Amino acid sequence: MPGLKPRYRPQFTVNHIEEAKRISHKHTAPHNMVQRAKLVQLLDEHPDIENPQAARLLGRHANWVRYWRKRWATDEFSLTDKPRSGRKPILTANDHTLIK
């Protein structure tokens, strides 16, 4: 018995797909960006794929797929995390002993 169709179905432009392909083939790209790029490609090829199935194919949790689908459908396209709130860490000259 098939599950529910995904609520959010992001529409990717040609530039989004090209960026995802470029990053997914780049050996020096951060792993989290590569996984998101692979999700973009998967959703572009199979827009009606269910979240649990997409998650299994990529080795991730269904909530991860759900989060990125919603973000891309309701917000601007990006493969990077949004900036976190709070104070940025500061490394001073006195902290040189921590770096070894």
Terminus-to-terminus distance: 56 Å
Rg, Å, rounded: 17 Å
The average pLDDT score comes to 88
Pairing-aware structural class of the strands and helices? mainly alpha
Question: How does this model look, in words?
Answer:
With 100 residues, the chain is mainly α. The protein has helices spanning 14-24, 31-45, 51-58, 62-74. α1 (14-24) packs across α2 (31-45) and α3 packs across α4.
Outline of the structure:
This protein has 100 residues and is mostly helical. It has helices at residues 14-24, 31-45, 51-58, 62-74.
Features:
globular, 100 residues
Topology:
Layout: H1 14-24, H2 31-45, H3 51-58, H4 62-74
Helix pairs in contact: 1-2, 3-4
